[in-house]
């Protein structure tokens, strides 16, 4: 075949080709044209400037006020198809140059508040907590009773507390109390660590706080538990970095939710912190976190109650409980639990199916040594 006689026109064929070959060539040319058109469309799509995600603050006829992620607000035009189809609070897409709104998004959440929902009911009960009888009574009065018997407060004519702050050293049972409360009330339990409310972009932390409270109201009766509250509620300062100012915005939103026009009613807030000394006083005033419950290190009687709970299922022999209680002075509930675990390991290492007094003494000395080493590292880096 003479390649010099090839004609690349779509309507021309090589004279020496058969009709079958001619049809195949036409089909191949048509396919290549379609692929070329698709490639051009893809290039045009990639070159098109991206749209900006923003929130609608207010709709004014054929215009709207939108809020950008950096906090700026703009008055923008609406496309014809968007008029009457958006309202305040919607998340929309706008053109990058003119900021004209071109599309409405159903829902855009950088961090879904539903991820904090505890779907499975906790198994820890009040009976599983030792040495905190007075603290449990206060928590029941402030949170459990209003959720289970709101009629009592209406008859008496008083408003139950909106929230409770549990504060004290690490390992004393603050989180345990909140989990047991979730079990006792059958309420929706939303568990958050304070640092999870600190988001990367401006305004996102405050938005997340708002969405969490909205979710709690939808799922009421509900309990919001914020652990390590000091991550967002430390005392405010006049100057600081942009990151610190963003944390303050998140904190201000938390205060707004507690003081808002919409009553929390069947939504209760429980917070926990190890650093009560740095908590902003604005959060502690009456009407916000009304009840402050200090969870201190357990005394001898409380340590005995905690020890009995953790050794209930253990096989013990030749034990002197008073001696163990005396040796664990200054231990937290978490420390006592660790002692029981370490004592069990001592028995396993000795190929025994029971635990002795000597095992507990070894475990106590080991826990003390670990704590002393930790204290030394904290002091000298």
Spell out the blueprint of helices and strands.
Elements: H1 19-47, E1 52-60, E2 63-67, E3 73-77, E4 91-94, E5 101-105, H2 133-148, H3 150-156, E6 163-167, H4 174-185, E7 188-193, H5 204-218, E8 222-227, H6 230-233, H7 242-259, E9 267-273, H8 281-284, E10 291-294, H9 300-310, H10 321-327, H11 333-349, H12 357-380
Parallel strand pairs: 6-9, 6-10, 7-8, 8-9
Antiparallel strand pairs: 1-2, 1-4, 2-3, 4-5
Helix pairs in contact: 2-3, 2-4, 5-7, 9-10, 9-11, 11-12
What's the CATH H-level homologous superfamily of the largest domain? Answer: P-loop containing nucleotide triphosphate hydrolases
Count of helical stretches? 12
Distance between the termini: 85 Å
Counting copies of identical and different chains, the oligomeric state is: single chain
CATH architecture of the largest domain: 3-Layer(aba) Sandwich
**Reading side by side through the largest sheet, how are the strands ordered?**
3-2-1-4-5
Largest sheet: 5 strands, antiparallel
Low-pLDDT runs of 5+ residues are 1-6
Anisotropy-based shape: extended
| Structural class by secondary-structure content | alpha/beta
Q: List the helices and strands in order.
A: HEEEEEHHEHEHEHHEHEHHHH
Helix content: 40-55%
**Count of beta strands:** 10
Radius of gyration: 33 Å
CATH class of the largest domain equals Alpha Beta
